[in-house]
UniProtKB/TrEMBL annotation:
One of its GO terms (cellular component) is membrane. InterPro entries: ConA-like_dom_sf (IPR013320), MAM_dom (IPR000998), MAM_domain-containing (IPR051560). Transmembrane segments: none annotated. PANTHER family: APICAL ENDOSOMAL GLYCOPROTEIN PRECURSOR, MAM DOMAIN-CONTAINING PROTEIN. This is MAM domain-containing protein. Pfam families: MAM. It comes from Capitella teleta.
Amino acid sequence: MSPIVFTVAALECTRVGLRFPGTAAHAYLPCSPIGPTDAAEQRLRFKMHSHRILIVLLSLSALSSAQMLPWNCNFDDGLCGITQDESDNRDWMRLDNFTPTSNTGPSTAQSPRFFLYFETSDPVREGEVTRFTTPDLQYSGSVCVDFWYHMYGASMGSLKVFSQTGLDSSTISDSDFFVSGDQGNVWINAKVTVDLNSNNGRVGWQATKGNEIQSDIAVDTISITRGACPVTVSPTIETTTPSEVIMTTAEDVDEVTIVTVEPEGENTGGDDERSLPYSCSFETDFCQMNQRTNDNFDWLRLSGGTPTGNSGPNGASQGTFYAYTEMSSPRNQGDVAVLETPSLLYSGDVCISFDYHVYGSTVGNFYVTLSSNPEIRLLDISTDLGNEWKSANIIANLRSGDRVVFTGVTGSDVYGDIAIDSLNIATGTCEVTLPYVCSFENENLCQMTQSENDDFDWERSSGSTGTSLTGPSGASEGSYYMFTEMSSPRVPNDRATLISPELGYTGDICIRFDYHAFGVDFGGFYVTLESSPNNRLLDVTTEQGDQWIPASLNARINEGEKVLFTAVRGSDVRGDAAIDNLNIETGACAKTLPYTCSFEDNFCDMSQSATNDFDWTRLSGQTPTGGTGPTAAYDGEFYAYTEMSSPRQENDVARLETPELDAEGAICVTFRYSAYGSSLGRLYVTQSSNVNNVGLDIRADQGEQWLTADLSFNIARFEKIYFTAVRGSDVYGDFAIDDLDIASGSCGETLPWTCGFESNFCDMEQLSNDQFDWSRNEGLTGTSDTGPTAAYQGTWFMYIEASSPRQNGDVAAIQTPQFAVTGSVCVRFAYNMYGVGINRFYVVNSRDSSRPVFDQTGNKQESWLTAQIDMELTSGDRLVFYGIRGNSIEGDIAVDDLRLTSGLCSDSTGPDPTDAPVTQYVVTRCDMEGDGSSQNDCRISQDNTDDFDWSRATGKTTSGALHDRRIANVKYPITGPQNARNGEYYFFTEASGTRDGDVARIIFDGDQFRRGGNNCLRYAFTMNGYHIGTLRAYMMKNGNREYAWTLTGDQSPDWKQAAVDLNMNSVSQIGLEAVMIGDFSGDIAVDDVSMSSGRCEFPNHSSLIANNNLETDERWLLCVF
């Protein structure tokens, strides 16, 4: 239940006795004279479980006016008569700002301005002490000493409170109060009862230095009053109704007054309620903290490191134990663990200070909220912060009964343990350390103040501002925001300035917030530092529309700096400015796009991962190890690389991380990379939120060249891009990157895309790992009897010049830009291959360079030819055009009028009509005349994972020769063909001796069978017999067998032809499969297998029958001639 507040008419008193009905015991709550008995009131606050309490007021005579109690001192007006002890080692010092040593001592007083502190820098030695005492206090008996202390520092010593008689230090009492060790960067209140044994007793404070200089101790705001300090009374008597207090005096008092008391607040109490200050170091237990039951798993206490390597802390931030979330199995991504404090019996501003640890490559989320307002996150971390403890000081406004809630969320893998330690919650506000977060949900404005040198103030609001057509309609997040009301009495050029608290940090900071600048009369909004009022970090001079706009501002500050937000009134009332979601944190801001880095001067705010075995290095010139790495930068002088020489070992990892990127959605990451060496490990690129989404993955030697990568990612705001290199088996495996560019939007060109080479190469890029380049030309090429006489369209075309110094086999390669499209595309172009020395011209998809999608060799004709190719592209793909020089200078090859359109070629419009024939060429033909083992164009092999093999035959099959069958009075073999379709031989499956379900597979290989893109597979077949099973054409993709064509049952004795469209991207194997049903009359035969580029073309007289087991897929067709 809530504390009960009651009012008692004031009497002169020295103590109040509390006696509970039915008990003989008394508990005493001291008080002191509070003013005239006919006017003043005394408010007593205590926790109780009964509303009937007997209060006895014992009246004593008034004390002499010479007494000095109460005695108060906040050091703002001096030292209040205190005495420095001359028998100690050092003196206390008075200060109004940061103590000289960093990471120790307060930055401001607890009271308005000054405080007293012990400076522990050199030459002060470990264990040295300093003492001060109050003046003589003309009082004998118990006194309550109420004061604030600050003990922040990694090597903190101790503080004690004592009493003594006069200036006689030999009478120093045993410690009435003692505390040691780091208590966090926060002022803490203490109330201590001290017994004074004479009328000249004193109260004193002694500070002792720890083992290093981070040991500054401070004291402020002392108040000493008569009587022992108040105690919390928690009787266990059952509550009764109505609520009333019976108040009476002792025997010499004649009046009894009954006063009715109403409980304050809505908190109903309970065993887990706690008053402030509340702290928990997790050394012995969870300090009455509560594990939520509606989450997925619990927080754990632990000492030492967490079980998962490269995640979690190695030990507590202080002491031995801490609390953490274990993200290993059986945890799943998105699982939640919630730990909350007991109910806190306080209403008002509090400081929540704690240490937290968020480390691991797959960190999920860690955030802190209040139970009364779970939508507002006081702290929200969703990225790896490295293997170090961080400190948080959060100002919040509690309602009585509130809990502070700590939530950990599992990421995509086990490397995301989250930990907390050294929790302390105290009344009042924190010293402002970074990160500083303010969402304006609380009325205290997070210690921000209004300037006294402006014309009007900022206001806190929810919903719309008071003037139409200006200002926001609501907060950017949550409910409240700050804005400037520009209506009367405001006049043009009036200014309002909102000021942050002093920031306890020196170095680079990032100031993030959302702002709103809407209205036709908008005057201006700008952000400055107090120390540099003329340097505007942001200056908005025109209205930006009805929208919240995120801002990220970089600044470099000294400790004590303040940030100022100023709005200027325009010509009329429609010019309200607003801000929300302020976050000031250490380090540079996330980078806006485009972000570039050429490594010429530094790493451009890129950082080495805290989990590295070694780091990336900047270098100019060649890497130290021969036979690996680049010889120079791609552009400029410097690049970044990984040196794989000793002491590096196999599988050592180096990760280079971009800064956080202030962008969300699709981005394009473009860079150059070198992957040259005989013992390369691995180079891969990922995004921070999903390390399993690998954009580039290089595991093999790419030659001594710079290559280009264009990677598309979809990112959340403030993500990073990771470049990870893994050391291979030996030193010859240096990786390098250069010329990094990250831009908004997916990589690549959109369709349609055309290039006629009239002005340039249309952003096509010459590859660097070839022997020469393609050239642009108009008219005749430089050599007679080769090349075109003019462009196919327009004036210009591109070609390879075969003249000297070119040699036989020299290669020229050029690639298109990336294409930001996924799906079917039609590629059309004109080409010329005229000359007796023509060698080869082919085209590949950059993603699978081993499988040409177009391939021609030899002298064709003097005129232009055209090609059209159906392909499947994935966003980021390029087309690469290769020309290979032949054995003489009459070997020029030319390309013109290149066009890419969405969809299949049959669905789109091609080049302008000409008489140039369209190439539909057959590269591979298997006529079965050889045994299939050594043919160049078609290599045939048996699958060793099936049940039996195909056989090669001429004439009838073994079973077919046994009997005949009659169809329309014509005799045919009972099974199998009469002869080969063409030539002498064919392949077949002998059904005799097989069982139902037995399978035989035959595999085809050769250049065309390894090409990507759309291809047409043709073959002749017979399925003649009374017990015919099934014939299938299949592809192996990513280890899975996909059936592209299926036919079952007797199809009569004649040879028939099948034509099957295949998309060969990611295909590792093409084959035919026969399934038997266990009878001798079930022989299946094939002949004349061929593969051609492009989709199948069917003659007009064809009978097209949909495949019987793929009726919904019209791509797979049987062509019966």
